[in-house]
Task: inverse folding
């Protein structure tokens, strides 16, 4: 019987039907192609065994706990990460709270309390460099030895390299997005970079100019390069629309505003306020410019619309995950 995807937060008990599964373990910020190599190996192992496929991840990102004063551009906040994990075909994601207290668990306590008692796993899949427990004392060798003691198997996945033989990492992707290179980032992610948020009210200037926008407030640490992008906008009901999005501080009308994502959605009218929607980034069109007046701004917006339409008309999905998210 299909019970559907489950998102388990905190220390909630895992349903009995999910115990005995195969678990992929990691932070997985970005769910990029390197992460997908680990995740797909876990899915294969679960199918082979005929057991549930689970992902164990940690929220917030450990860097936010150990270095709270240093901003971190999180590529996939929990709700987006869960959506991607579900699209890959997993049965559940377990979002374990990461605190200083949790980081003080010994490696053996982690194995016993989480993998054995909470999840009751039959097999674990991790990347080659996964470390856990106090002072990162648990590594691949420790995990394999623990599996022998506790009765679960372990698979370690080698680092995944791109076509240029470079290891794919979340930090590389953050850097590309901070430079506005959404297309290159998509090549490493294996899908178009996507954000999800509630549509909020704005100044309604776009509506008066003939370009009504769906506005989203994103995390203060969201470090995408400010500018204009060709995007796809997915409404809460699943319908997909091409569009142009502006991310930045709106220098022509409000030079002191907080960064905002404003999407002009093609062929869509009506009130979107309160909807949770997603925006997938396909290409960077230009930087923000302060125009002399609104007429010049409108003329440029019309050019942006044409350029975005041309770019989006020729795109193809990078993968089945990309197809599920942005097509």
Result:
């Amino acid at each position: 019987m299909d019970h559907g995807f489950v998102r388990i937060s905190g220390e909630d008990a895992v349903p009995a039907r999910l115990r005995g599964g195969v678990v992929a373990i990691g932070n997985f910020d970005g769910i990029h192609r390197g992460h997908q190599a680990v995740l797909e190996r876990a899915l294969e192992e679960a199918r082979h065994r005929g057991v549930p496929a689970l992902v164990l991840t940690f929220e917030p990102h450990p860097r936010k706990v150990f270095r709270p004063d240093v901003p971190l551009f999180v590529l996939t906040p929990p709700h987006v990460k869960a959506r991607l994990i579900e699209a890959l075909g997993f049965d559940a994601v377990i979002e374990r709270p990461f605190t200083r207290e949790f980081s003080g668990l010994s490696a053996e306590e982690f194995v016993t309390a989480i993998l054995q008692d909470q999840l009751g796993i039959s097999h674990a899949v991790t990347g080659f460099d996964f470390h856990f427990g106090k002072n990162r004392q648990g590594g691949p060798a420790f995990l394999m030895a623990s599996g022998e003691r506790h009765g679960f198997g372990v698979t370690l996945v080698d680092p995944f390299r791109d076509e240029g033989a470079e290891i794919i990492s979340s930090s590389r992707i953050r850097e590309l997005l901070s430079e506005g290179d959404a297309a290159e980032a998509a090549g490493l992610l294996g899908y178009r970079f996507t954000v999800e948020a509630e549509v909020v009210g704005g100044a309604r200037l776009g509506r008066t100019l003939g370009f009504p926008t769906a506005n989203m407030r994103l995390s203060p640490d969201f470090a995408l390069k400010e500018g204009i992008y060709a995007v796809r906008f997915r409404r809460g009901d699943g319908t997909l629309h091409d569009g142009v999005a502006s991310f930045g501080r709106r220098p022509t009308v409000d030079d002191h505003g907080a960064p905002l994502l404003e999407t002009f959605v093609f062929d869509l009218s009506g009130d979107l306020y309160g909807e949770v929607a997603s925006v997938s980034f396909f290409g960077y069109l230009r930087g923000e410019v302060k125009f002399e007046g609104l007429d010049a701004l409108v003329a440029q917006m019309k050019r942006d619309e044409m350029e975005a339409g041309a770019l989006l008309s020729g795109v193809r999905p990078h993968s089945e995950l990309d197809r599920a998210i942005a097509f």
